[in-house]
């Protein structure tokens, strides 16, 4: 059950005085300053080329596929990846939280597809609670992307963090609410999962 304060915590932070421009299609962006070669190369790196956008602009602009926790301390072959389409497995973490080793550096990585249009101002927000009290919040910008020319997914690695350590940190489990949202308040993914801190992976 969500509480009103949860929604405030999961709203993106704002920059005073910043105003979001009007949304444009990939083709409209491709035509802007078409004579500027360096800008054209940069737009092409985002998949913004004249005539390349799909005419099907229905559905979400962004589809978030996976969330992964990565660490150089993970044993060979061990991966902590959530398939966001597997809602049953995500829900199962509430009964069987995943184990994260205490006191290690790790980072969050997500893969996503841009289906149409250009995205900017899209960010990943993660709120960690223990016994109903917020103990950590992560907010990271995804960046600007257009639909991939080959329809492939993008991968974004966020800044490394360090997991808490100590006997107190290891007692009980942590509940996480993750969200991918843009500056307009459009939510592309919203899910919950749980973890516990352990002495080993």
UniProtKB/TrEMBL annotation:
Cited SUPFAM superfamilies: E set domains (SSF81296)
Entries under InterPro entries matching the protein: Ig_E-set, Rho_GDI, RhoGDI_dom_sf
Keywords: Cytoplasm
Subcellular location: Cytoplasm
Keyword hit for DNA-binding: no
Biased segments, Basic and acidic residues type: 1-11
Keyword Aminoacyl-tRNA synthetase on entry: no
Region (Disordered): 1-22
Pfam families assigned to the protein according to its UniProt record, in alphabetical order: Rho_GDI (PF02115)
Gene3D superfamilies: Coagulation Factor XIII, subunit A, domain 1
Family the UniProt entry places it in: Belongs to the Rho GDI family.
Name of the protein in its database record: Rho GDP-dissociation inhibitor
Organism: Hohenbuehelia grisea
